[in-house]
Amino acid sequence: MHDHAKPVQSPWLTLLVVCTVSTLLALNGSTLNIALPVLVRHFDADASAGSWLLLSYMMANSATLVIFGRLGDMTGQRPIYLIGLTTFTVSSILCGFAPNIETLIVVRCIQGLSSAILLTNGATLIHGAFPPELLGKAMGYYTASFSVASLVGPTLGGFLVEAAGWQWVFWFNVPLCLLGLYWGARHLRGEPPLDGDQSLDVGGNIITMVSLLLLTFGISQATDLGWANVQVWGLALVAVLLVPVLVRIERRAKDPIFDPGVLRTNGVVGIYVGGALNAAGRFPLVTIMSLYFQIILGRSALSAGLWLLPMPIATISAAMCMGWLSSRRNARQLSTAGSALGLMGLITVTLSITTGVEWGILVGLAITGSGTGVFLGANATALLQALPEGKAGVGNAVRLMVQNGGTLVATAAVLTIITSSAAPGLRSAVLGGDPGGMDPSELLPGFQWGLIAMIVLSVGGLLVCIHNQRIMRPPHLRK
């Protein structure tokens, strides 16, 4: 059994490696959010293909997190982590050589697979390296590493596409990948493989992946076909009907993805649901506001990146306070506080774009970022404290899967809502950052309704956090 009180080496070296890699993962996403209009125009892509430049990565990532989490538990986190980082490096290089939009989407899927390996095993490596009394502080730094990339990414992405070309949105992170590989090979240790006969829940993973793909693809098709189209709601219906099949498979699986025993313990299911709803209500905001600044306010990609800075700055500031906050409040209380603060920020942003108060948008982004910084670290810490021994890898993978799945579906829905304000022939132009001859004010309702949908999701996340706050794990079971 792993002893948290006696880490194999200095835990801060492990944290340094994982934070370096998480920074490049976040840079990969935040730079592309800004560059999306440029890529849509360059490849002359339609609205659906433009959406899938973002969704393909998220889809592949979300659908394989649990598989790689289980493999990490079975083989040890270090070897699979280094394999994932190598694959991510190679796929970053290949993205820049993509000759067409279809090839780029395929390579983005490979990037998504490799990022799933890194994400699902990164927090587990930290959990295994740090003693319980330092875990909250370490998770705060881990959360901040994503936010540092979000701080630099939008501005960097805008600069790269204007000064060097879209290829460098993917190539610039290669040196950081190589640095992470060097440090990882030297300093990562990870926990040893689990003893005993462990197995992959192949049936559960397949059903989960198919359900997520059908639901996301159905929603994304509403951009071109409309919400009433049989293909849109038919695919979503099939995805929902697969849920009972998943439940039956999980009851018979030897090592299920969704272990009923774990889900019923210490409010774990509430941590998952709260994380999914809060992620769905927060993470699409960067994509929405990037398009808003370029389409409605008519700003360049670089200018849009600068306008987004208050959100990551606030996220970093809040995440860096997690050590201090964790010494005064437990992780579930902090999750509730972060959820409430993020909701206040979303409401502020929505009211500001409705009234045209531009400085209010900046304030709202800052408030949202503060809540996000507190919530992410606290939610991860609460889960790692609640999971039974030996379940950290797959348990954290499920957290990331439901969180990213919520983000994936919400992003697909929000992009559809935004483009629905335009005529069918102009929807590709909207994702390309061009109102297509329309008065930009005609597109404003789409942004407003997209934000309102996120507010509804955030309210649900807050209610779950409030309920879950009452379910506390006894201190003697946390080690």
Structural write-up:
By secondary structure, this protein is an all-alpha fold. It has one domain: MFS general substrate transporter like domains (Growth Hormone, Chain: A), CATH 1.20.1250.20. The chain is 77% helix and 0% strand. The protein is built from 20 helices and no strands. The chain has helices at residues 11-42, 47-75, 77-95, 101-129, 132-163, 168-171, 174-187, 202-225, 230-252, 260-263, 268-280, 284-295, 301-307, 310-320, 322-326, 331-355, 358-386, 392-419, 427-431, 444-468. Helix 1 runs parallel beside helix 5, helix 2 runs antiparallel to helix 8 and helix 5 (132-163) packs antiparallel against helix 13. It is globular. The N and C termini lie close together (11 Å). The model is unreliable at 1-8 and 473-479 (pLDDT under 50).
What's the topology here?
Layout: H1 11-42, H2 47-75, H3 77-95, H4 101-129, H5 132-163, H6 168-171, H7 174-187, H8 202-225, H9 230-252, H10 260-263, H11 268-280, H12 284-295, H13 301-307, H14 310-320, H15 322-326, H16 331-355, H17 358-386, H18 392-419, H19 427-431, H20 444-468
Helix pairs in contact: 1-2, 1-4, 1-5, 1-7, 1-12, 2-3, 2-4, 2-8, 2-18, 3-4, 3-7, 4-18, 5-13, 5-14, 5-17, 8-9, 8-18, 11-17, 11-18, 11-20, 12-13, 12-20, 14-17, 16-17, 16-20, 18-20
